[in-house]
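Handoff note, outgoing to incoming analyst
You'll be picking up this chain. Sequence as last confirmed:
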Amino acid sequence: MNSSKVLKWHYACKVVDVAEGELFGVRIKKNNLVISLFKGSYGCISDVCPHMGVALSGGHMANGYVVCPFHGWQFCHISGEMGERCDEIPTYQVDIRDEDIYIGITS
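Most recent structure output, in case you need it:
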């Protein structure tokens, strides 16, 4: 049996929906995600803070980090790594196609 995972691309939103330095929450295939744009680079990470399960899309961006609105935990908007802690959250590939944003999810 082949257990390799396959990356599938899913439409998420329009490019104009994600403003520079802002967060955009979206749900794709039962995954709550937050898409961001910082200095011209798009990122997509889980929209669920591992600490309290709070939606990160309710927070804000600070120097390329998504800041949780509850306790201020920060996650790199591309790698999902935390600033000073060892936790990290799932990340997803982003593909810009014309004026649309697609997110790659493995299944």
